[in-house]
Design brief:
Length: 307
């Protein structure tokens, strides 16, 4: 296994929705010993602490929750992502999914400067494809993929000079998409796989096809792992619970396939709300999944044969 230089970047974003608590996510990941788990695998790990949002001169807008703060987070996290990815593999500790407005913006800028196409794997129950105009809830954690693929309607946000091509985005785990968002997605080339698709075809086949595309293009791969990708019975610490999510076994398979591919260049861990957890088990599961993506194996040493 190739040892990596990993940079942990705290992103205590709590502006993307009305239910608070995700700002405590970064420290929950630290308490669950994320750094130690990755060092145990032989990686060099540095914790860069928490990013603070900028203070943009943007007025609030009716119907949009915490718009100025979210724009401030986007610009600050874009800079932090660009700085971190130049030094190694950043893991962004969330924080709600609005943080990806900035993290993917930053890593995409780095990929463009390096001459690599940027790809995004979105592991989530939701497609997060709304814009400021189409969102009914006003919760901006539902807009990152709309913003990052260059959709119009994000006045006040940093420009997107390097939008992610639709065909370079794959969403796995969908099971909560409103009618307007569904119609918008159906008009795109985004790869999208709901739980029925997973049940019928298997998660390995769906992910494997996308990873083959990334490898063929020599692409950089950003992975955004939302707690609600998982079934709430195993990961209750999220404010957007949707029954019928991925099992622990399916999630570990995804992570191990990512490691085997060697393609992942950056990672988000998002939507962990410790206020809703049960004795830290969701935080620990997310740490275990991150470790699987970076080389942990069940059978990482020879198993004696029975005589």
């Amino acid at each position: 296994m190739e040892n990596k230089r990993i940079l942990l970047v705290g992103a205590p974003v709590d502006s993307g929705k009305t239910r608070l608590g995700c700002l405590m996510g970064p420290d929950a990941f630290r308490t669950a010993r994320l750094a130690g788990a990755l060092r145990d695998l032989g990686h060099e790990v540095s914790d860069l602490g928490n990013v603070a949002p900028d203070c943009p001169d943007v007025a609030p807008r009716p119907g949009l929750h915490s718009l100025p703060e979210t724009i401030g987070w986007t610009s600050a996290l874009s800079r932090a992502a660009q700085e971190a990815i130049r030094r190694g593999m950043p893991i962004f500790l969330g924080g709600d999914h609005a943080l990806s407005l900035g993290t993917v913006h930053g890593v995409a800028a780095h990929a463009a400067a390096s001459g690599q196409p940027q790809f995004v794997l979105w592991l989530d129950a939701h497609s997060d494809f709304h814009t400021l105009q189409t969102t009914d809830s006003g919760n901006l954690h539902g807009t990152p993929l709309g913003y990052l693929t260059g959709r119009p309607g994000f006045d006040g946000f940093p420009a997107v000079p390097h939008p992610i091509p639709e065909q370079n985005v794959c969403i796995i785990g969908l099971r909560s998409v409103d009618a307007a968002e569904r119609a918008m997605l159906e008009a795109t080339q985004i790869r999208r796989h709901d739980m029925r698709d997973i049940d019928e075809n298997g998660i390995a086949k769906l992910l494997g096809a996308f990873l083959d595309t990334v490898a063929a293009a020599n692409g950089a791969l950003h992975v955004s792992l939302d707690v609600d990708f998982l079934d709430p019975s195993v990961a209750p610490a999220v404010g957007t619970t949707v029954p019928g999510g991925a099992t622990v076994r399916e999630a570990h398979l995804v992570m191990e396939m990512l490691h085997d591919s060697g393609l992942m260049t950056s990672l988000d861990l998002v939507e962990l709300n410790p206020m809703l957890d049960e004795r830290g088990r969701t935080a620990q599961l997310m740490v275990d999944l991150a470790a699987s993506a970076l080389g942990r194996r069940v059978f990482d040493r020879p198993t004696p044969r029975s005589l």
